[in-house]
Fold:
Amino acid sequence: MENLTADWLDKLDQGLVLAIESSCDDTAAAVLRGNKVLSNIAASQEIHAKYGGVVPELASREHQKHIVPVVRAALEAASVSPEDLRAIAYTRGPGLLGSLLVGASFAKSMALALQLPLLEVHHMHAHILSLFIDDEANVGGIPELPFLCLTVSGGHTQLVVVRSPIDLEVIGQTRDDAAGEAFDKLAKLMGLPYPGGPLLDQLAQKGNPERFAGVFPHPKVEGLDFSFSGLKTAVRYFLQAETRKNEHFIEEHLADLSAAIQATIVGILMQRVAQAVAQTGIERVALAGGVSANSELRNTLQEMALRNGWAVHIPSFAYCTDNAAMIGMAGQFLHASGRMGSFASAPLARMPF
Ligand code: KG4
Ligand code: ZN
Structure:
């Protein structure tokens, strides 16, 4: 049988790529040799927590402060000097325009100075392509092509058919909030600080999802699309009604509420995955994006895969949330395909998939 994945991995040589990611609130840089990560550095921005969400203008300024030391640290950690590089990959979009501009301008200046080609990476492709990184911590190893990927981040929720590293098709997506956004907004309704997703995950591990089973609805959306706005409204009304009866309701039931909310979100996602497998006949399923760090999502997908005989692939925690290694991986595939970027390209807040 032909092995498309092996063909693609064969196309990667030993060339070194520096990657820069600055689409949201992490300034990150990495160095990759082929699909091996030599360094993966990030400076995250604590400043947004007190505002309950990312403040775009502050994010851009933080990126400007961090970009030089982060890139230097990535080169040093990889024991690589700029002259050893063969190309510079950066996130062109989607993301916050001001944040993207910092990474794009830096990548272009450095590439110009070193006379290197640029590689323009789509952030959502990169989340998926993190699955091709050669790292034992990636669950299930490198996937065979084609495979299905549920990409769940703070800004996107997509079901994607991955035919090759440069041929990806969205077959389902959210009509309103992204899964990570739903986690964060629901956590905020319960008074948890931003970003609430990881905290809700931790609290849920101590809770009983059955305590509020059936209270939170699944959306009625046709096809393979997702919707989380109805869940948000249902949780808001439920919490308002219960707090009127008992003002300590939320704090007294925080773990059980977290477990029920998490189980509902994971249930909504998994139902669509099962449907996508049935519809496409592709029995290889992967997760990607920040929410793929969620313990319940990881466990549920692995249990479903075991029951149904699917292959399952989940990135190491290091490559779930935003990172530059995934940008480097996507950049290596663009380079191997001869798809170099242009110095005239502007960053894109919204970027066609
Ligand atoms: O991919 P990512 O780092 O950034 C975007 O591209 O958006 O995803 C960030 C999202 C946030 O909404 C965050 O709350 C969520 O991923 N997240 C989690 C967990 N870890 C990160 N959500 C639920 N459980 C987690 N363990
Ligand atoms: Zn992301």
Summary: The chain has a mean pLDDT of 96.
